[in-house]
Every structure is written in structure tokens, then in C-alpha cells.
Sequence to fold (266 residues):
Amino acid sequence: MTSARTRASRGPLGTLARLYGIQTRYRTADGRWKHASDDTVLMALRAYGAPVDEPRDLADALRERERELWGRVLDLTLVAWDGVLEDLRLRLPASELAGPYQGVAELEDGTERAWHPARVTVGRRAEVDGTEYVELVLRIGLRLPAGYHRLHARVAGRTGSSLLMAAPRTAPGLPDRRWGLFLPMHAVRTDRDWGLGDLSGLAELAGWTGSMGGRVLGTLPAFAAFLDGPLFEPSPYSRSAACSGTRRSSTSRPSPTSNARPKPGP
Fold:
């Protein structure tokens, strides 16, 4: 049964949290959802500067946040993957849509690139404090070198600026250097495992890493620990110590007709 506090988190409190980019729940390793308490969400909101001391402040805080977000001509941060920014979203009062729409990208090396939209379409609409706002989608097709740039827009007397990060989707290949990933074996989870990562999941991760250009995959020791030998050193970072025994990191699977499950560790 859903508790009253959980339902409240899905109401105005949950809406305000989303507007500030705060997650109010997460999924555990065994697939269950865990919800933050209302008090925890309120504390997180206050840490982000939201004017909420108690639940009765939520309505005013929601209006203030919506006014702030729709009052921004541009988002504070934009990302141009592989150096391409095809579309740019602007937010303006509906009474100020006449244009012209233009701007400039200020590159990190000091040079500038002017942009003019090839097409303008209408996106979302919202009414905030009696003012109707419209989100416009501008096709600007901007191509940029990798780096941290600034994007400026000018529309009908209004201006906006954003940090524009141009980044590659995959790490660039270097002739004498390689990159890869590290993940403990127990964290290599799939939708088929018994609650603990296994070698087949590690193989899938290796294939995915290679498809993204990686050439190295590391994990914690995957072999049995000989704790009765003269050279052992128990460590809380070993996979066996963290997950109650190495024998569970096998590639075995329960058959479709079997109800068998591995026994829980100590």
C-alpha cells in the first residue's frame, strides 16, 4: 500500500522537486522502489535555495520556480554532442514572438560564430501569473569544435546566455594510449541475474565498452580467496568480502522450469 507521505511526494512536493532536478526515489538492486521522506525532500529543496520551510509554502514556491524557469530565455547549460547543436529552445512571452531571432556563439578561443535560424516552430505553452509563455524551437544547425563555449541569443529586446559544452559522444582514439572502465563484479547487474553480477554480465560489459572505443576492462579479483594461506590479506574491497563468497559469481542460470534460487549469503 502506498503511504500518505509517498502520495504527498507525488503531488506538489514531487513537482517542485522535479523542477529543481531532485529525484525523490530510486530503485534498489533487487528492483524495489525506495521513496525519500517528505522531510528529506524539503531539506534538499532548501539546500537548492527553494523558499520552503514547511509544506504550506509549496504553492508559492511552485509559482516562483515556474516564473523563474519560464523567464529564462535560454537554459543555463547546453550540450552540443559531437559539436552539433541542431535545435535551440527559447522561452518568451507570447506577446514578444515577432523576432528577429539571432545570436552568436562565443568560442573558448575568443572567436565568434553568428547564427540565424533556418526554421522556427512552436513547442510548449504555459501560463504563469497571468502571462502566457511559449517555447520556440529554432533550427540553427550550429557546428562547433570541442570545448566550453558561450551561446548568446537576442530576441525582441530580450537576451539570454548559456554555457555551451561541445563534447564527443565517444572518447577519441589515441595511437599510444587506451581507455576503459572499472566495475566490481558484484555491480555488473543484468535483468537475468540472481541479485549479484556474474561473468556473462562482465562479458556483455566488455562488448559494450569495446563498441564505445574502450580497450580495457577492470574488475576486482574474481578468483577464490585462500584465507588459510600465508600470503592472504582480507580486504573490504574484494568482491568476495563484499558479496559473501566468490562461488556466486558464476555463469550458471536457473532453468526456465526451475524455481531454484541461490541461497543467501551469511
Observations:
- The chain has six helices and twelve strands.
- Residues 180-248 form one domain.
